[in-house]
Amino acid sequence: MLISEWRKKVEDEGAKNAVAEVLDKIKQSRLNAFITINEKCIEDARRFDKGELKGRLAGVPVAVKDCITTEGILTTCGSKILHDYIPPFDAHVVERLKAEGAIIVGKTNMDEFAMGTTTETSYYGVVRNPYDLDRVAGGSSGGSGACVAADESVLSLGTDTGGSIRCPASFCGVVGLKPTYGLVSRYGLIPYANSLEQIGPFASNVDDLGLLLEVIAGPDARDSTNAGKEFRYEPKEREGLRIGVIKEMGGNDNVMNSFDQAVELIKAKHKVAEVSMPSFKYALAAYYIIAMSEASSNLARYDGVRYGLSAEKLSSWNEFFSKVRADGFGDEVKRRIMLGSYALSAGYYGKYYLKALKVRTLVIRDFKKALNDFDLLIAPTMPALPFKIGELADPLTMYKADVNTVPINLAGVPSLSLPIFAKKGLPVGMQIIGNYFEENSILSFARWLEREIAEVS
Ligand code: GLN
Questions:
Q1: Whether residue 164 lies in the annotated active site
Q2: Residue 214 phi, psi dihedral angles, 5° rounding
Q3: In what order do the strands lie in the sheet with 376-380?
């Protein structure tokens, strides 16, 4: 649902009734998009009806991924180890949402610690795709993508470490953006891989997404990687842009068919050419080494003392620590802690981690060069249509599904996933990638393409 449609509904029936309807819808839903419903948000809706809630998102439902802290609201990160963690503080983005009057309807389901591409690693069960309940909604922000597609919220926030906003946006047929690294504060984001991840918006169209980005982006001294910039959504549509199609990012026949159809539309108004990014053939391997290395160090904090799950007092510290972690983490998280610790170990650091960092530099160089020659780059978001639940049981097969999304995080550039032409009744997404902090160029182009696609669909 668009913000404008929501506002109309609120005018007709009042925010309290409209929000109560959304909460009922979530409760009856088979999607499993939410881990926690924020019943208290009805109070905020009442305040809106009384004219007490003001701001750019006043009275608009927003769902927040469950790895983003919310004061007084359960925040599990999709893990058993945080099954009872109630944060005493709000993340920067949540503070900003509240300051603009947004109604936080609940916390969305996700892969455990955001490690996954399908939301099947969540301790709280898989999220189903609104277009086909036997398929996944994508991951790791599966709940945030599905809830917007199914009108279980108007807007949502996700996080993207290697594709976790763009993948569910693509699989659920909504718009999702991974902002430039540093544009949105990570304060209050429970970390998976700090150097790669950003919080970002989901919405039903580009204009709504632009507004949500405007609200969440901004300076924050509590995040040392924050760029200290505000963002204003100012779409300026232009013709004759130089658009590069990334040769190394492809997809299966369904995906390429949809992508080629969209490229034909683009060619009518812009200059389209192919661009090659030679380093990308190593990007997936480098991403997983870096992400797992950072994860292995980040997840050391779950020791059964400071947060969440604990254990009976046992004879030794090592025994206690091991028991808590054996019980609290799922298989995928354990796999990554082990692989990450291995890659960082004295004997293998140079062979794996250092090599991965070198590849990262090459990926950055390829982007810089390409974004010098082109205004924007495009590629399919995901190489396939939404997977059947259980289809990616083998971890390596799952990692490979991220081939088109991870290079963006290695470089830190922004990338938006826009729904293009559905195939076999399932959504397909196109990535639109721009230079650092050029979100407005991406959004302006996406807004134009969104309209062109709507006209021919
Ligand atoms: N699928 C990727 C991974 O598991 C990306 C996840 C994410 O962006 N959080 O690392």
A1: yes
A2: -60, -40
A3: 34-37, 103-108, 61-65, 155-160, 198-203, 175-178, 415-419, 429-433, 376-380, 242-246, 271-275
pLDDT by residue (tens digit) across 45-58?
999 999 999 999 99
pTM of the entire structure? 0.98
Quickly list DSSP for 52-94. ---STTTT-EEEEETTB-BTTB---TT-STTTT---SS--HHH
Q: Tell me, in angstroms, the distance from the centre of ligand 1 to residue 137's CA.
A: 14
C-alpha 224 to ligand 1 mean position (Å): 22
Name the token pair of 74: 């359960």
Q: Which of 65, 110, 111 to mutate to test the pocket of ligand 1 (most atoms within 8 A of CB)?
A: 111
- Give the DSSP per-residue string, 103-136: EEEEEE--SGGG--SSSTT-TT-PPEETTEEEEE
Determine contact, residues 251/379, Cβ cutoff 8 Å.
no
What count of other Cβ atoms lies within 10 Å of the Cβ of residue 443? 26
Ligand 1: list residues with CB < 6 Å: 114-117, 140, 159-164, 192, 291, 402
Catalytic residue among 122, 153, 156, 164: 164
Helix, strand, coil percentages for the chain (3-state, nearest 5)? 40, 15, 45
pLDDT tens readout for residues 176-222: 999 999 999 999 999 999 999 999 999 999 999 999 999 999 999 99
- Calpha distance 104→102 (Å, rounded): 6
Q: Which of 158, 63, 167, 39 is nearest to 110 (CA)?
A: 158
The HSE-up count of residue 264 (CA atoms within 13 Å, CB side) is: 10
CB-based contact 119:111 (threshold 8 Å): yes
